[in-house]
Structure formats: structure tokens, C-alpha cells
Specification:
By secondary structure, the chain is of the alpha/beta class. The chain is built from ten helices and 18 strands. It is 28% helix and 28% strand. Helix 1 runs parallel beside helix 10 and helix 2 crosses helix 10. The structure holds flavin-adenine dinucleotide. Flavin-adenine dinucleotide binds next to helix 1, strand 12, strand 15, strand 16 and helix 10.
Length: 391
């Protein structure tokens, strides 16, 4: 039997064989472990630190809709959004799911024109969305200073507690028989030719029919351990959270171009903020290009976010912050996730670089479990195949 005591002392019976070893205990790894375990797959999840300790623990918790660029991606996001509505019950955890809606603040006529198009598209798909001129915007968000704002695009959007999201998947996966080991980093991947054989960890070796790498920004390093290269990119993103406050904002508020900026090549603040059920105000994102993973707040980032926020939310200058943090924000060069077996490593599967992670991951995790267990594969995963980086 395998028992985990946090320091390997009580791990006995190593060299266990599993159907699938999942590396990474963020949203992706825990959701995939859950979907696999529910399909009857004998799986082991290895996480280097604590669960949700990577980028997932830095997340603002938004389940975005308006940032879905293509019709296919919007289909995926809407499917995920509907799934999130019942997920607390399914997982047996209160995910603190709320639907405050999103306001994209608009500063000029060109942005207004573009957002009219996005809003039309959403309305046609049954999503609540509308354009708000400055007067209407000021009525729904009286605390915003709208000096340089001509209006906003409102769209339906959800919000949840990211830690509960991860832990909810992990606990439910365990209930279905998955083995989940936090604080057990994969240090080496042993291959025999093109076939993965074992992973080496401080708690011994583990083998499986499939190695599934869901290690977010760290995935490039894991893929390298298997002798291959995958262009996993990341920026350094910073955020902060206030003490609990009386109601100050009623929607999640963001600037246009949020997602382009988050993965851009220059140092920038792409402001997004929203107040949570507890009253805390979560504010993101100061972005810097990064070559290495560094999870520290910077002297530039915190003042830069504060300055941007104070322009739009003047009462912010009197608010106390209780925590700041930073994390790598991972993405693939074409901004689509990479999901599937790696060419050149027949039993190594990757699930990396999620765009709009919260709404898409529960659906993608089910598709991945199907991909690994069923004879008829999920065709909708084909555009995400890592083959596109090996041509
Ligand atoms: C500030 C910020 C705000 C964000 N806000 C949102 C938002 O509102 N909505 C949204 O959808 N997305 C948001 N995102 C993006 C989202 O958080 C990520 O897309 C998502 O968390 C990625 O999840 P993941 O499981 O792929 O990676 P991670 O959560 O990073 O998980 C990977 C895990 O792998 C582990 N690992 C690494 N190496 C090893 C090893 N050798 N062995 C074992 N384990 C290993 C790491 O410790 C880590 O826990 C935000 C990102 C940032 C930075």
C-alpha cells in the first residue's frame, strides 16, 4: 500500500504501476485526474509543491465569456460555463460560484465599434450582453471615475474561488480512487526509446502506461526530461488583494485587450478588478516578459497596478492591501492550448497553455479522459494537438 506522510518517510511500496501518471496539481492536473478517475482509470497525480500552488493559485477566478475569439472557442467556453453552474453540487464543494458579469471599459470610438461586434455575436448565442453608454455605466458602477471612459461592454461572466476549484477536483478524484501526492516533484523521466517507462521522485519511482504532463509553465522542463522540446511560453504576472470592504464595485471590471496584453512582449498593466463574496477586492495584472519562472512581486508591478487603479477607482487610495503575489502566466505561441500525445514519445501526453482556463478546463478534462480511454476519440481536441509544433 502507498501511504503519504509529506516527507517520503511513510511512502512504502514504490515502483507502483498506474494507468496514467498526471504531473501537476493545478486546475488542469486536478480536473484531469478527476475525469480519469471517474472513467475508471487508475491514476496517480504528482505535484511538486502544494495543490494549487502554481499559476492556479494566482488566478483571479473569472469564468470569462467575452474573450472567446472564435466561434469554436466560444462553443467550448459556453459548454464549460454551463458545466460550472452545477459543478459545486457535482464535486460536493461550495466553489463560491457567482455571476457578477463583466464590464469592459471603452476609451475610444474604435474600441466601441469593435465591442459592438463582440456583443452582437454573444447576444446571437443567447449570452446576456449589451453596450452601456457612460451615463448608464455610471448608474451601475457609481464609484468609478469615468473621465477617460466613453462607456462599457457588459457581458455575462462567472466567478469562483480558485483554491476551492482545485481542491474540489482533487477531493472528488480521490473519492473515485485517484492517488494524489502533493510535495512529490518529478525529478527525472526515464524513457526506453520513444516510450516513457518511469518517473523518478524523492519518494521513489512510479511507472504507468501514460505520462500526462499538466505542469503549466513548468511543462517545457518536463517535456525536456522526456527528451523533447515544446515551445511553452510565459509572462510574469502580478496581482494583489485588499482587506474585506463594503460594496465598492458590482461587476468584474477590465480594460479592452486584456488577453493580448497578458501574453504580450512588453511591460504593461492590463487592469482587471472585482470584489469577491468576502468583500475583498482582487486586482490584477502587471505583466512583464520573462525568461525564467519567478514568483515574487516586484518594485515596478505593485505601484504600477496601484497607479492604474487609482485613476479609475479614486477610493482605492484609502484601501489597505493584505497580499501581493506573482506567477508565470503560461501560453503556447499561437495562444491555443497544446493537448495530446507528443510526436516522438508514444505514451507522453500534454495538457498545457489553457486560454480561458476556468470555463474550458472541466470540458477539456472530460475530452482528455475520453481520448485516453475510448476507441472513438474526441475530434474537437484535434486543433489543439501538439503535432502543430513538430511540422
Ligand atoms: C494573475 C493571474 C490571474 C489569472 N486570472 C485568471 C482568471 O481569472 N481566469 C482564468 O481562467 N485564468 C486566469 N489566469 C490563468 C490561469 O490561472 C492559468 O491558465 C491556470 O491556472 C493554469 O493551470 P495549470 O494547471 O495548467 O498550471 P498550474 O496551476 O501552474 O499547475 C502546474 C503545477 O505543476 C507543478 N509542477 C511543476 N513542475 C513539477 C514537477 N517537476 N513535478 C510535479 N509537479 C510539478 C507546479 O508546482 C504547479 O502546481 C490567471 C493567471 C494569472 C497569473
Amino acid at each position: 500500500m502507498l501511504v503519504y506522510g509529506g516527507d517520503c518517510l511513510s511512502v512504502v511500496g514504490t515502483e507502483k504501476a498506474y494507468d496514467v501518471i498526471v504531473v501537476g496539481g493545478g486546475f488542469a492536473g486536478t480536473a484531469i485526474a478527476y475525469s480519469l478517475a471517474r472513467s475508471g482509470v487508475k491514476s496517480l497525480l504528482l505535484e511538486a509543491g502544494h495543490l494549487c500552488g502554481g499559476t492556479s493559485g494566482a488566478c483571479a477566478g473569472r469564468a470569462q465569456i467575452i474573450e472567446s475569439e472564435t466561434e469554436d472557442y466560444l462553443d467550448l467556453v459556453l459548454q464549460g460555463f454551463r458545466r460550472l453552474e452545477g459543478l459545486s453540487e457535482e464535486l460536493g464543494v461550495d466553489l463560491e460560484w457567482d455571476t457578477p458579469g463583466h464590464l469592459s471599459l471603452i476609451r475610444n470610438a474604435e474600441q466601441w465599434q469593435n465591442y459592438c461586434g463582440y456583443v452582437d455575436r454573444l447576444v446571437k448565442r443567447g449570452v446576456e450582453a449589451q453596450m452601456l453608454e457612460a451615463n448608464a455605466l455610471q448608474r451601475v458602477e457609481p464609484n468609478l471615475r469615468l473621465e477617460n471612459v466613453i462607456g462599457a461592454a457588459y457581458s455575462q461572466e462567472g466567478h469562483l474561488n480558485p483554491f476551492k476549484y482545485c481542491m474540489g477536483f482533487a477531493r472528488a478524484a480521490r473519492r473515485y480512487g485517484a492517488q494524489i501526492l502533493p510535495h512529490v516533484p518529478v525529478q527525472e523521466v526515464e524513457m526506453r526509446g520513444e516510450r516513457f517507462v518511469t518517473v523518478n521522485t524523492p519518494c521513489g519511482k512510479f511507472s504507468a502506461g501514460v505520462l500526462l504532463i499538466a505542469a503549466g509553465a513548468w511543462s517545457g522542463k518536463l517535456v525536456k526530461m522526456a527528451g523533447l522540446e515544446l515551445p511553452v511560453r510565459y509572462t510574469h504576472a502580478e496581482a494583489m488583494v485588499s482587506e474585506p470592504l463594503p460594496p465598492l464595485v458590482y461587476h468584474h471590471v477590465g480594460m479592452p485587450g486584456f488577453y493580448e496584453a497578458v501574453h504580450g512582449a512588453s511591460r504593461t498593466v492590463t487592469l482587471g478588478f472585482g470584489q469577491h463574496r468576502s468583500g475583498t477586492l482582487l486586482i490584477s495584472n502587471a505583466i512583464q516578459p520573462a525568461d525564467d519562472i519567478d514568483m515574487k512581486s516586484t518594485h515596478w508591478g505593485m505601484p504600477a497596478i496601484s497607479h492604474s487603479l487609482a485613476e479609475i477607482l479614486p477610493s482605492f487610495t484609502d484601501i489597505r492591501m493584505v497580499r501581493t503575489w506573482a506567477a508565470p502566466s503560461p501560453f503556447m505561441p499561437d495562444y491555443l492550448p497544446a493537448i495530446g500525445f507528443l510526436p516522438g514519445a508514444v505514451n507522453v501526453y500534454v495538457a498545457i497553455g489553457f486560454h480561458l482556463a476556468i470555463p474550458t478546463i472541466p470540458v477539456l478534462a472530460d475530452w482528455i479522459a475520453n481520448d485516453l480511454t475510448a476507441e472513438i476519440k474526441t475530434e474537437a481536441l484535434l486543433p489543439f494537438s501538439p503535432n502543430r509544433f513538430f511540422v
